[in-house]
Amino acid sequence: MKKLGLSLVLVSAVYCLSLGTIDLDNLYNYAFQYIPDYIQLDNTRDNAITDEGATLGRVLFYDKKLSSDNNTACASCHQQEAAFGDLNTLSIGSFGLTGRHSMRLVNARFSEEPKFFWDERALTLEEQTTQPIQDHTEMGYSGEFGNPDISELLTKLDTVSYYETLFELAFGDSEITEDRIQLALAQFVRSIQSFDSRYDAGRAMVNGDPIPFPNFTDDENAGKKLFLERVQFDGNGNRIGGGVACASCHIPPSFSIDDQSRSNGVFLAANGFDTDEGITRSPTLRDIFHPDGSLNGPLMHNGQFTSIRQVLEHYNDIEGVTGNASPPVLDARLKDGRFVQKLNMTEEEYAQVTAFLLTLTGEDVYTNEMWSDPFDADGGLTIMGGNPLSSSNLESKNDVEIYPNPVIETLHLRNIPEESQIMVFDQNGRLMANTQTDGRGKHSIDFTTFETGIYFVQSQNMNGELIMVKRIFKI
Question: From CA 418, how far away is CA 439, in angstroms rounded?
């Protein structure tokens, strides 16, 4: 018993030490997480996840300093314990309630629909990340009603000591820009993934979703069959056989919304009075449920449904949308010709579909420290360790300029005072490029063939004296 007690004390001490601390020598593995081979979707584009970038993104995500009143963070509305959603119908922002329910962010990287927000107004996740910051109600840097704009946020963050280190770690220098905030936040959000569900365990045992999963109960397999199979209609919109075709819009194995989906017939705005007909996106159906069986918050953009049964009843008989009078925005997959579908689900079918949806919930995403709040109880954060090649420790004998950073294709050097040798090393110290300048003060290096990641650009004169070493981020 004494040994057990000591072990618990040591574990507790290690955990407490990790609170409020970022160890630069032991970053979490964000970049190379396990992804099942049956998951083919990825909306990352040219902003690949790096451990350094996602670490910065994690701090930004949880930092209340990103709101104008220092009271609201991204994580205030997207909470780890709710699959990065909110248990409240509307979230509490700096200056009021949000206009729509906060969408769960889990598996945002693996979406059929590359656009973000319920109304798809952000073309990319990067574009999405700073819109709440600039929303007057949510985080306040709107430049409206006497509030500061985002340029003042950049100035504020520039005075926060840990950001100098973290931006330098992620991008090679400590400059803080909106673009870099977007890149880092998007990397962290894309890193939040859930592939440890009972569905994933079963899917790994077979060659496709239609095959019964060996680890499922009869009801779970029956629910999966109903979810996957098309509806058989009688010509008047009445279901007479087949499944209920959830998968036609919520596509397995990601269970994300099809990017061609239109309205699902939920037109009411969150205020309960107005209409909100521009809703064509939804989060993944993965982790709708918490591991304890409760919902991770109400459902739909207005939060009007508080149970899966209510959602299924909506699709079973879509109210307020009838015949030729149905709005043209209603998705055609919810109709049989001109007739709105009547699924005629039985009590047994309701229970079976619900049983299947429960298998889509994992466990790791709710407790993994890599996605948790890095700040201590008092809002403090300490940076430990650090690569000795950090820019703050590097020798620089002149004002050599390197741009752009991050680089996509070509890296430019300016103000090189003499003929010098330019070398590029990866993080493992491997020489990737070796070239000489011509003494005219300018030079360019082709980065198009380099993989995404961190590189070090070193310059020395012909006598072997070090002129400059600079950390570069390639996207």
Answer: 5
Q: How far is C-alpha 355 from the geometric centre of its chain's CA atoms?
A: 27
Cβ–Cβ < 8 Å for 247, 228: yes
DSSP string, 197-214: SHHHHHHTTSSSTTSPPT
With CA atoms as reference, report the closest residue to 48 among 406, 374, 391, 383. 406
Rg of the chain over all Cα atoms, to the nearest angstrom:
26
Q: Given this model, what pLDDT does residue 270 score?
A: 94
Looking at residue 418, its pLDDT comes to: 67
Nearest to 312 by CA among 205, 183, 223: 223
Instruction: Give the CA-trace dihedral at 342, 348, 351, 352, to 10 degrees.
Output: -90
Nearest to 251 by CA among 226, 225, 284: 284
Q: Is the peptide bond before 404 cis (omega within 30 degrees of 0)?
A: yes
Q: Are 460 and 466 within 8 A, CB to CB?
A: yes
Q: What is the 8-class DSSP label of residue 341?
A: P
**What is the pTM for the complete model shown?**
0.81
Residues of the chain with pLDDT under 50: 1-17, 387-397
Q: How far apart are the first and last CA of the chain?
A: 53
SS3 of 373, please?
coil
Q: Dihedral sign, CA of 110, 114, 119, 123?
A: positive
Q: Which domains does the chain have, with CATH numbers?
A: 2-194+371-384 (1.10.760.10), 198-358 (1.10.760), 394-474 (2.60.40.10)
Pairing, β 410-414 against β 401-403: antiparallel
Q: What pLDDT, on a 0 to 100 scale, did the predictor assign at position 165?
A: 94
Choose among 116, 122, 126, 107: nearest CA to 185. 126
Render pLDDT for 31-87 as a digit per residue (tens, 0 to 9).
999 999 999 999 998 999 999 999 999 999 999 999 999 999 999 999 999 999 999
Residue 307's Cβ-side half-sphere holds a number of Cα atoms within 13 Å equal to: 6
